[in-house]
Amino acid sequence: MDQIINRIPIMLRQYKYLFELLVVLCLNLSLISAQDNLNGVIYYDQVQEYKLEGAYNSPEWDSYIAQLPSKGNTQYKLSFIQERTLYEIDPESESQQNKKMKLALKKASYMKPPSPKSIKVFNDYGSGIQIQQVELLTKDFFVDTELKQLPWKITQTKKQVLDYVCLGAELNNGDGTITAYFSPQIPIPVGPGEYYGLPGAILSIEKNGDVLMEATSIVLSELGSTNALEILGEGQTISQEEFEKILDKKIQEFNINSTAKTKAKKKGKK
């Protein structure tokens, strides 16, 4: 009898969690008709690590970057119309970036292997495709891939983001634990960047407990099905495999040039 009594609190917590999941399911079913015309914009703060260390092996560079922050926030916006989304840097955020930081990032890029920069990400959940506009060495590429189903595991954690109560879900990406907080009040599987596929819009992303992205403003509007997201330029798309071959080639060229410059410097000192 004592064992049964001791188990009652655990059983109550389990039933409470099952009840909450049932409420989420009912909410999604009740809003399924509204999903067809659900449009809007979600603005996010995204943490960016600048990684300026080691770009130049000189005390002057170390002294220069010591005056700059190691990370900062960049504002992004996620526009969504029914089952399509466009994730991009908010132009106002880009114009507000510190001039000294912009110059430091530009200088650091000269001494590091080529690295692709994501400009825009277009997802079509209906057809299961993703087109990413990527900048590599000042040239834009449009990389076409399939949307993969992410192995989320819904947890019992909750978080308040703006006016929305969000439920937690986790996945392990090999580099740590990613926790997403999604809101069933916005019943579409959208989210920032590479995160999506939950029964509600993802409003916050954490990695090992640290916030990486979080919604700062949400504007919902019933715009109707005649509106369409801006097409990503007019560039011809290439596959992920083709883009990786191009990237590998550029990195090899960079390494060869760097080795040649190092040898030339050593020869000049003799």
Overview of the molecule:
- With 270 residues, the chain is α+β, with helices and mostly antiparallel strands.
- It has 2 domains: 1-30; 31-269, no CATH class.
- It is 32% helix and 37% strand.
- It has 6 helices and 12 strands.
- It has helices at 2-30, 32-35, 59-65, 91-95, 99-110, 240-269, and strands at 39-49, 71-81, 84-89, 117-124, 129-136, 139-146, 153-161, 164-172, 177-183, 201-207, 210-221, 237-239.
- It has a 12-stranded mixed sheet with strand order 7-8-9-10-11-1-2-3-4-5-6-12.
- β4 and β5 form a beta hairpin.
- The protein is globular, with a radius of gyration of 23 Å.
- The termini are far apart.
The total of helices stands at 6
Sheet with the most strands?
Answer: 12 strands, mixed
The share of residues in helices is 25-40%
What would you call the structural class? alpha+beta
What is the domain total for the residues?
A: 2
Residue share in β-strands: 35-45%
Give the averaged pLDDT, no decimals. 76
Going across the biggest sheet, name each strand in turn.
Answer: 7-8-9-10-11-1-2-3-4-5-6-12
Taking all Cα atoms into account, the compactness measure Rg is 23 Å
Poorly predicted ranges: 8-19, 27-34, 223-229
Distance linking N and C termini: 89 Å
**Which of globular, elongated, flat, extended, rod-shaped describes the shape?**
globular
Please count the beta strands (DSSP E, at least 2 residues each): 12
How do the SSEs run, as a string of H and E? Answer: HHEHEEHHEEEEEEEEEH
Quaternary state reads single chain
